[in-house]
Amino acid sequence: MKQTIITGSGSYIPAIVKSNSGFTQSVFYDETGKPLDRSPEEIVEKFSQITGITERRYAEDHLNASDLGALAAKEAILKSGFNPEEIDLIIAAHNFGNVYKHTIQSDAVPSLACLIKHQLQIKNPNCIAFDLLFGCPGWLQGVITAHAYFKAGMAKKALIIGTETLSRVIDLHDRDSMIFSDGAGATVLEYVETENASTGILGSCAQTHTSEEVNYINMDCSYYPDSDPSVRYIKMKGRKVYEYAIQHVPAAMKACLDQSGVSINDLKKVFIHQANEKMDEAIIKRLYQLYGIKQAPEQVMPMSIQWLGNSSVATIPTLYDLVVRGQIPPHQLQKGDVILFASVGAGMNINAVCYRM
Known about the structure:
It is a single chain. By secondary structure, the protein is an alpha+beta fold. The chain contains 8 helices and 15 strands. The strands form 5 sheets. A 5-stranded mixed sheet has the order 1-9-8-4-7, sandwiched between helices. A 4-stranded mixed sheet has the order 10-15-14-13, sandwiched between helices. Strands 2-3 form a two-stranded antiparallel ribbon. Strand 14 (338-345) and strand 15 form a beta hairpin. Helix 2 packs across helix 3 and helix 5 (238-260) runs parallel beside helix 6. The longest helix is centred in the C-terminal third of the chain and has 23 residues, at 238-260. The protein is globular and about 60 Å long.
């Protein structure tokens, strides 16, 4: 029986480190353009307590999202051992295309996937390349999409990339700007005959809610009262996002596990989008409560948000790659381990994938 398996992973972690102390000289405003009534030091300390973030990474000035994605993709292909010309499908997940440093325009023509294919020097015209916009769950939706291509007989090998330079679309006068970061992660998937039918992707779930949820994460002008209203930045209604995620993400994760025929007790690791430490912990707790389990097992959820921040579509593939390489001790993966990927983001969109190593 053929199954979709991950045969290689890679990531690119930018070299520029932006610590929380770098924001203590900032002037933050609220949505009405009024200065926040606490000192920057107090705001930064409260932010760290809630999100768990102490530092994040920003891309070097000369690198764009397509460059980060190509670097992560090269590493994933190298680990897979594939000839790049054998890849049938390249999907690049992102939100803003290439945003050149010191500019305000998003550039997505040609698509990032095409630019990455060009940088990888893949000549095969039958290797199709396209972008996918699904908010922060974009990389995982790319995995689901490739799996569907495999099932339909339209591809056998796929390269799925999540890449972002959020540091170039943030409003520095908005305290939520401290959440976001840059980075890229990539995986190579293959549709192959396996000895065990319960190996690889076992099930998936995806949802989109677009009533009032469509405005929870969007683009708007700076909170700074004298800013140029024609320049727009990423904005987030943090409390609304938190409440939405706590309500819907655990249910989607449970639906994915149940569809996969996997017991919650057999789950080894959960790779969840690195959005907010407290939110992710609450989601995991709620997932186990849905199964009547009061407390989630220790070490079930590896995290990188503390030092990498929220790089949107790049968080899960980067985290997975780091764990596979033994870079986040004590987390390890062994053959036969069941893991769950899950994400939530602008749309609002949710997805989950159950996978056996």
